[in-house]
Amino acid sequence: MATDVTYAEAPVSPLDRLDTRTRIVVAVALVLALVSLRSWMLLGTAILLGLALTMLAGVSPRQTVRRLLHVEGFLLILFVALPLLTSLPPFIEVGPLSLSVPGLERAVTLVLRISAAALVVLPLVSGLTPIRLGHALGRFGLPARLVQVFLFSIRYIELLRAEARRLHDAMRLRGFRPATNLHTLKSYGHFIGQLLVRAVERAERVDEAMRCRGFAGRFPLVTLERLGLVDFVAAALTALLVSTALLMDRL
Amino acid sequence: MAHIPDGVLSLPVLAAATLAGAGGLALGVRQLGDRDIPRTALLAAVFFIASSLAVPLGPTSVHLLLGGLIGLMLGWKAFPAIFVGLLLQALLFGFGGLTVLGVDLLNMALPGVLLAMAVRPFVRAGRPAQAAALAGGAGALSVLITAGLVGLEIALSEPSFAPAIGVMALAYLPLAGIEALVTAFVTLYLLKVKPEMIGASAFIGSSP
């Protein structure tokens, strides 16, 4: 993970022929459409479509499964609680617990919807490197300063992670082992504090270097990406797909 | 746990919270001078790294949110810093959704920024112990408010979830305690090592 931060030699997939901006817009449009779908059949179709995209993009099955587990984990408590605690009319009552059918149905809809959303977003976004994303943000028209903070962070996360590793090694050499106790929290507090001090001192040096070179609030964003025919085709296909799905859901 | 996945929130909730998040981001970016860029980026990098630290809690471990500390050190510039962190988490680790970025930003940045605003004068003026206690309190409270916001957004999107939200909120209590202590220890450390870094709003603030 450490090296992908600054540059990942991402494997080239057919999706890489799309402009980064197109990928983001398509992903957002698809998820927004999914939020309004209620039909299980359509949501199921979306899951299949997501799986197809995932394969097309060459995302490893392991990564896909991990992503799905992470996403479902979020709602685990809700899924358990929803059929039991919902205020909707009960179905089966066992003592104080009642299992409600509408509650179950909503839970299923939600699982389908979240899985579909994760499967659609993963292939469109996973191949992007942070630098590519940063440049795409700039070309989306986000404030230049925000884009600069993003690009600087990518660079310094790498450096500070090396510092963090050294600090951590030093702690381990002195026999530190994390556990559930006050000492651990105090050590982590000092660890974070020291990282902050080093970061701020480095920021001062970076600032001086930038001023020496006459930084005037602008960095060129170099990119070879252009909106091409593929992008218009992808956008048109997405629009068609979204409107068809929304229509079919209403009918 | 504070990251909401794609597809959970209803469109009105999504739109309203995203707008609010974007508003905070715009405010933060407006305060960013040329000279704040490296500082904000480096602090964003530290918080990104610190939030991937696994703090052991019994048989499992939790990740810190550090909203209170970020608010205290960056003020409104916490919004751009957390935005950067969220983007990278979504991209590199697949945490959180794409369409909910603005919502996550609001949930994680706003409580810390507002609480820090309230306690900053006292942190600056007070004795170390008092400053640490206040910073820790702000840290814990911002975790709970973040949890409250997440719960509220889910409950508004799917009203039948409302009763389950309470169960979820309980899960945040231990994290709030851990955040309080870690934030307090960081504050004490900074007061000893580099006191101008903590509490002084002018530290990151003004650009010439």
TrEMBL record, chain A:
CDD domains: EcfT. It is a multi-pass membrane protein. Its main location: membrane. The chain crosses the membrane at residues 24-56, 68-88, 108-128, 227-248. It holds the Pfam family CbiQ. Keywords: Cell membrane, Membrane, Transmembrane, Transmembrane helix. GO terms for biological process: cobalt ion transport. It is found in: Cell membrane. It comes from the Bacteria. GO terms for cellular component: ATP-binding cassette (ABC) transporter complex. Belongs to the CbiQ family. This is Cobalt ECF transporter T component CbiQ. It comes from Pleomorphomonas diazotrophica. The lineage of its organism: Bacteria, Pseudomonadati, Pseudomonadota, Alphaproteobacteria, Hyphomicrobiales.
UniProtKB/TrEMBL annotation, chain B:
It is a multi-pass membrane protein. InterPro entries: CbiM/NikMN (IPR002751). Coiled coil: none annotated. Its main location: membrane. One of its GO terms (cellular component) is plasma membrane. The chain crosses the membrane at residues 42-66, 101-119, 131-152, 164-191. Keywords: Cell membrane, Membrane, Transmembrane, Transmembrane helix, Transport. Pfam families: CbiM (PF01891). GO terms for biological process: transition metal ion transport. It is found in: Cell membrane. It comes from the Bacteria. This is Cobalamin biosynthesis protein CbiM. It comes from Pleomorphomonas diazotrophica.
